[in-house]
């Protein structure tokens, strides 16, 4: 295995943690949370306090921002809030695009969110139809109106996702919300 070093002054512990993460084939949410905590410990300054995010404080350094985002990912995973953990992972990847733990968290959270949405909707082969007569009263933004227009009573969820050419998770979450609100339902 190639050893990689995280570009922080906290080097070796972070390197060991990344190697351990790379060895995980299919992480469970608990092992992912444990790996996140190890990496957060490795990049968090030893004084133990989290950097302030107040507007009156100076801007955070990349290392401080990354440490705060890793802590947020860990907290969100502990709370089983996969959407919040995904958001924190995506933000961490904007700071450090090749951060293995954030990539792993993003992949796992997307899988868990997709699975939860599909479970509530039925399946990707489910065909839905719009149940309201006046969609103008819903106050949807243009992308949401477009996705709703693809739900025609003939197309499967998989087809709606494909035709939308939008992020799969975003479309599934939107359709899941429409189903929960009774705006669309099974044919």
Number of strands: 2
Largest sheet: 2 strands, antiparallel
- State the secondary-structure class: mainly alpha
Unreliable stretches: 1-26, 44-52
**What is the straight-line distance between the termini?**
52 Å
- The arrangement of helices and strands along the chain is HHHHHEHHHE
Fold topology:
Blueprint: H1 11-23, H2 29-43, H3 62-78, H4 82-95, H5 100-121, E1 128-130, H6 142-150, H7 157-164, H8 168-180, E2 184-186
Antiparallel strand pairs: 1-2
Architecture overview:
Helix 1 runs antiparallel to helix 2, helix 5 (about 100-120) runs parallel beside helix 8 (about 170-180) and helix 7 crosses helix 8 (about 170-180). The relative contact order is 0.10. About 60% of the residues lie in helices and about 5% in strands. The protein has about 190 residues and is mainly α. The chain has helices at about 10-25, 30-45, 60-80, 80-95, 100-120, 140-150, 155-165, 170-180, and strands spanning about 130, 185. It has eight helices and two strands, in the order αααααβαααβ. A two-stranded antiparallel sheet has the order 1-2.
Task: Give a quick rundown of the structure.
The protein is mainly α and 187 residues long. Helix content is 59%, strand content 3%.
List keywords for this structure.
disordered N terminus; 3% strand; 8 helices; two-stranded antiparallel sheet; 59% helix; mainly alpha; 187 residues
């Amino acid at each position: 295995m190639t050893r990689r070093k995280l570009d922080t002054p906290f080097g070796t512990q972070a390197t060991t943690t990344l190697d351990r993460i790379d060895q995980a084939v299919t992480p469970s949410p608990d092992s992912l949370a444990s790996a996140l905590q190890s990496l957060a410990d490795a990049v968090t300054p030893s004084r133990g306090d989290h950097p302030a995010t107040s507007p009156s404080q100076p801007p955070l350094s990349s290392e401080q921002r990354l440490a705060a985002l890793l802590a947020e990912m860990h907290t969100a995973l502990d709370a089983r809030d996969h959407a919040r953990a995904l958001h924190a992972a995506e933000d961490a990847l904007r700071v450090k695009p090749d951060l293995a733990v954030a990539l792993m968290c993003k992949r796992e959270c997307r899988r868990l969110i997709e699975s939860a949405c599909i479970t509530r909707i039925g399946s990707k082969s489910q065909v839905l139809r719009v149940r309201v007569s006046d969609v103008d009263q819903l106050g949807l933004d243009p992308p949401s109106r477009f996705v709703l227009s693809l739900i025609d009573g003939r197309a499967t969820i998989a087809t709606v996702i494909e035709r939308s050419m939008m992020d799969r998770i975003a479309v599934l979450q939107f359709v899941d919300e429409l189903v929960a609100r009774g705006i669309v339902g099974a044919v």
